[in-house]
Amino acid sequence: MTELVPGGNLPLPGGIVTVRVPGPFDLSALITDDDGKVRGDADFVFYNQPAAPGARLTGDTLTLDPARLRAGAARVTVVVSPADPGTPLGRLPAPVLDVTGPGGRLLARFAPPRPRQETVLLLAEVYRRGPGWKLRALGQGYADGLAGLARDFGVEVTEDTTPPPAPRATPSPSSDPGGFLALVNSARAAAGSPPVALDARLISAAHAHASAMAASGRLGVEAMDGVSVYQRLTATGFTYVTVGEHLVSGPRGPAEFVDYCLRTAQPRQTLHDPAFTHTGVAYAADHRSGDLYWTALWARPLTPAELTRTATEVVDRTNRERTRHGLPPLTVDPRLTTAAQAHSTDMIARAFYSHTSPDGSRPWDRAAAAGASRRSIGENIACGQRSPAEVVEGWMNSPGHRANILAPDFTHIGIGFAGGGPAGTYWTQLFGA
């Protein structure tokens, strides 16, 4: 996996690639010719127009098949904007772009410089180079919103005065619409994964989120009411150690929905993931367009044993990195663990993502409050990663976080993890010497 910097580029393998930006953002894409202009509105892929030849947007994931782009397409520019229009990106968690290749292999990650007042950010572009395609990291911000960006790229932005079509007949929702569970477990069995069970809390959260998406006519991890799918799940009382979601519009029944998930690499990986033990699915109709909006949630409950296992794996992976670089392993300090866990939980409870809490406390303040008497304190935080392997890999690919992990003076460590909030997962790694 390559950690990109602004301007950095990477050759892409042949086949389908997916681009994912988790968090409280809307993802969109502009398909252009060599002159950097679209040919028409159909080249603007966004939540109200989620598909074009060779490109499909599903929630926070853009799936690209460069070979199937329209004739003459030379570039696909990936754009991120706040899910709540007009919100400066500087008020939100920093966007992180993950690019996955065939087979679900993570190819690249790009964490751009943190934006400030910009409301739109050009994150990356996939562009033709000779017979192949490459990825380039951008990180260019705009302050005049998606409409201005669309005009810059040649998209005509007009008000749609066409009356909405009459809603199509839709099946009645249920706790297991159309035998969803049997379809899912059959696919999981074929992949060698254990079956999942339906959970009423996941179904309730899925129904609430599908209804919110249908009401606004748009897909998104965070709906127009400002609530993320993860916040809906934790509001039901379900706490999780790992979570996944499918947010899809269009399928007319569970068979179509599951078929879509199995055709695309990242959704298929989620459906097959052996870590998940419970699921819930629901859909709701947009009565203006007749489209169905689906939410499927996948999770593994958080128990004290699971929390201990997760923290232990983060420590083990961290110490493996230190050993690989000739450094002694870190010892778990229960007081640092208490402070780290409290910070992860607090970031969800008070909806912030920072080393500085809303009350102004810093890592060393929190460590001292937990009773730790270390002379030196360091902290790594992360959000959105779904496993210990993913979060440690992300830290090691970020120079500042890597420096903390490989700091020779640190002797002790504490790990915090909590699920929920806008990004789904919040991790804290607290070091002491």
Q: What does the radius of gyration come to?
A: 22 Å
What's the domain count? Answer: 3
| Spatial strand order of the main sheet | 1-11-10-3-8-7-6
CATH-defined architecture of the largest domain = Sandwich
Low-confidence stretches: 157-174
Q: What's the main sheet like?
A: 7 strands, mixed
Provide the CATH superfamily of the largest domain.
Answer: sav2460 like domains
How many extended strands? 21
Number of helical segments with 4 or more residues: 11
Mean pLDDT comes to: 87
| CATH domain topology of the largest domain | Lipoxygenase-1
First-to-last CA distance: 31 Å
The coarse silhouette is globular
Helix content: 25-40%
Helix/sheet category = alpha+beta
Oligomer: single chain
- β-strand percent reads 25-35%
Protein name: Stress protein
InterPro entries: CAP_dom, CAP_sf, TerD
Domain SCP: 181-295, 315-431
Region (Disordered): 157-180
Task: Report what the structure shows.
It comes from Streptomyces aquilus. By secondary structure, the protein is of the alpha+beta class. It folds into 3 domains: 152 residues, sav2460 like domains (Lipoxygenase-1, Sandwich); 122 residues, Pathogenesis-related Protein p14a (3-Layer(aba) Sandwich); 129 residues, CAP (Pathogenesis-related Protein p14a, 3-Layer(aba) Sandwich), CATH 3.40.33. Helix content is 28%, strand content 29%. It has 11 helices and 21 strands. The strands form 4 sheets. A 7-stranded mixed β-sheet has the order 1-11-10-3-8-7-6, with no helix packed on it. Helix 3 packs antiparallel against helix 4 and helix 5 packs across helix 6. The chain is globular.
